[in-house]
Design brief:
With 250 residues, this protein is of the alpha+beta class. Strand 10 and strand 11 form a beta hairpin. 14% of the residues are buried. About 16% of the residues have low confidence.
Length: 250
């Protein structure tokens, strides 16, 4: 009897130890002091606001299916979290009162449930909790296209050695940008920096170094790309439909 109890106690201790290790392995991203946890599970997807300690570590952006429930996890400010939930439609937050907080969103559901229906329910729950309304708006937004008009200038940017492990990167020092990238990657980097769509039809895999100085606006960027690297940045205003998220006055 005593021997059986001892074995049971050892098994329980081992199980608790394994559980703690599994939990710590899944937690790997630091969060800020004002982070809020939104834990939402099927079937109701109800949730409450839970503050996350500054010392806690939690997993960052994850989406997929494990052995068991499907899950969707996002960590960031409210603009990012809602943009991820409403994809592929662009969103614009208006009079957002929750600018200080970061949000950790954990959603889990049965593999038999359609992910789109899950997101529809989750969006409705969060909308009710945060008290915002949504409307569809059309705005004029700049879109840009990169093309090469002087290959000799561009070839000069490919001279020199680049670290093999670096596919693309940007180093910023004030308004000075030092970019290593292929033309497709350059378009991606400029899209992020300008928060506007930049595309190119070039598929080349040659890396170049672009040293751009005193970047204050798109016009200045366009001039340097053309004069130094033989790259034309054509810009057009096009209508873009987005989802406007307006928060109710509290």
């Amino acid at each position: 009897m005593i021997k059986n109890l001892a074995l049971l106690f050892i098994f329980l201790a081992f199980f608790i130890s394994c559980t703690q290790k599994d939990n710590s392995a899944a937690q790997n991203a630091s969060v800020s002091k004002d982070s809020i946890l939104l834990e939402m599970q099927e079937p109701t997807f109800d949730f409450t606001f839970n503050e996350i300690s500054e010392n806690n570590e939690i997993s960052e952006n994850v989406q997929g299916t494990a052995d068991g429930p499907s899950f969707f996890q996002r960590l960031g400010d409210l603009n990012y979290v809602l943009a991820e939930l409403y994809q592929p439609q662009p969103v614009q937050l208006k009079n957002n009162p929750n600018t200080r907080q970061n949000y950790k969103l954990n959603i889990s559901w049965s593999p038999n449930t359609d992910v789109d229906s899950v997101k529809n329910i989750v969006r409705l729950k969060i909308q009710q909790k945060l008290s915002y309304s949504t409307t569809t708006e059309t705005i004029m937004q700049a879109k840009h296209r990169l093309s090469v008009t002087d290959n000799s200038k561009l070839r000069q940017a490919s001279n020199g050695s680049f670290p093999e492990a670096v596919e693309s990167k940007i180093d910023r020092e004030g308004e000075n940008w030092d970019i290593i990238a292929t033309l497709p990657k350059l378009a991606e980097i400029l899209s992020d920096e300008l928060s506007q769509e930049v595309r190119t039809e070039h598929k080349e895999t040659v890396r170049h170094r672009f040293e751009l100085n005193d970047i204050k606006d798109v016009g200045n960027l366009r001039q340097q790309l053309k004069n130094k690297y033989g790259i034309t940045l054509e810009s057009k205003q096009k209508p873009v439909e987005l989802l406007a998220i307006s928060f109710n006055d509290s």
